[in-house]
Amino acid sequence: MLPNPACFTVDHMVSEQARGRNSTGSSTAAPEPVARPLADAAGNIPSTSVLDAVRVLGTVVAPVVTGGAIARRPRAMLATQRAELDKRAVATMQHLRDRYGPGPVQVRLPGRRFTFLLQPDQVHRVLNQSPAPFATSTREKRGALGHFQPSGVLISSPEQRAVRKPFNDEVLQAGRTIHHHGPHMADVVREEMTALLGHTHFTETLDWDGFTTAWHRMIRRIVLGDSAREDHAVTNDLLRLRKDANWSFLKPTRARRRRRLLARLARYVDRAEPGSLAQMVAATPAAPGTDKHHQIPQWMFAFDAGTWATLRALALIVTHPGAERAARAEIDSGGDLRYLRACVLESLRLWPTTPAILRDTTGPTEWAGGHLPAGASVVIFAPFFHRDHTRVPQAHQFVPELWLRERTDEDWPLVPFSGGPAMCSGRNVVLHTASVALGHLLADQRYELQSPELSPHRALPGTISPFHLRFALTPTDAATAAP
């Protein structure tokens, strides 16, 4: 059963009162100070009460799990949107910080103890000190990602990661804003978006089904080569395995399907079609144990999240006239699409596709509130840092300008692609293709968002389901008119 959305109103009022203000913004008497828990007798970081642990389980953990951590469930996401469960999750994290101080704080859940970070310096420390002493190969990731990428870099041992991460960075050219295959990628994107527009002009509607079909054709061509355009089987096999991955260790691995997927990917690497990432895989030297083609499922997985970010960014742009004017001016100027890239990043800030960034400690770590032993699970709950209105003035607004400069550790942590040495290797490839797709969709077409309703004059919702976004196309000649 889904939690009662009305509970958020109560939580929000309590949180406001704890800061000395009521829901209208006027001053109120400050409540009695809450006693801050100290480290226990063994010097460990303090734990929440049982009641607060239940609250975290119900409002933070459960929505992520039921929504599908690896493959999103459309009905669950729509329910989350309607019940505003993401707002309740942020309110719970604010409650933990207000009650337990700067943290971190441990939450004991069935079968596992998680340590939630509550301050920006803690986030920067964990990301900058990954993969040691904060390893990316957590128990939860190994159980989930093992279903479709058993040799993937995210679930590799430190020794395996030492050869696999550099290979991923080399193929994806993690240090370059535009991959040297970027012009070819852009051509592929424009061709597939042109085909999509041909379909939408017939239906006069752009929706999830049409967009995701075009997007997956684009992904297959960019990653595997042009001959993979209609290879729906490789996408379907990956999706089926990702759905199993939602259940982590609780569901047996479909070993035959996984072997079939990896064999298909190996054949594309053998073909090494010009301009594809598969060509890069074939041509890039790698140390023994890299399992080169085993790295590809993660790239396709990351590109899939780009589908949600791009369509959500389009919804934000067309419902914010100032942003639409800026986007169209950039497109008309033939520039490098920095603003559209920022719009994609901002959609990921508002609605992270990876809400929980997980790390496991490889050794004891010391914190202001105590210490954590080796093997402790550390959680960065991204929506808390992205949408905490008590710390981020623009928390519920669409502000692409936040991303028009490089962000550093001096900034509040906004981490749509993680950060530090373990930052997603494909970040720039995804942002490049997404911004080119937006530029082509907006160049000669105007859109009206039909569902859901967004407005620049109201706080943006805690989430919107990309599966239920729907746009009506306006007459083409209106595209040249000022919005």
Beta-strand content bin = 5-15%
The count of β-strands is 10
Tell me the major beta sheet.
Answer: 5 strands, mixed
Q: Can you identify the CATH superfamily?
A: Cytochrome P450
Instruction: Report strand order across the widest sheet.
Output: 1-2-8-5-3
Q: How far do the termini sit from each other?
A: 43 Å
Percent range of helical residues = 40-55%
Shape: globular
> Under the CATH scheme, which architecture would be assigned?
Orthogonal Bundle
- SSE ordering: HHHHEEHEHHHEHHHHHHHEEEEHHEE
Please name the CATH topology: Cytochrome p450
Which residues form runs of ≥5 with pLDDT under 50?
1-35, 478-483
Which structural category do the helix and sheet elements fall into?
A: alpha+beta
- Our count of domains comes out at 1
Q: Calculate Rg over CA atoms.
A: 23 Å
- Name of the CATH class: Mainly Alpha
Helical stretch count?
Answer: 17
Average per-residue pLDDT, rounded, comes to 90
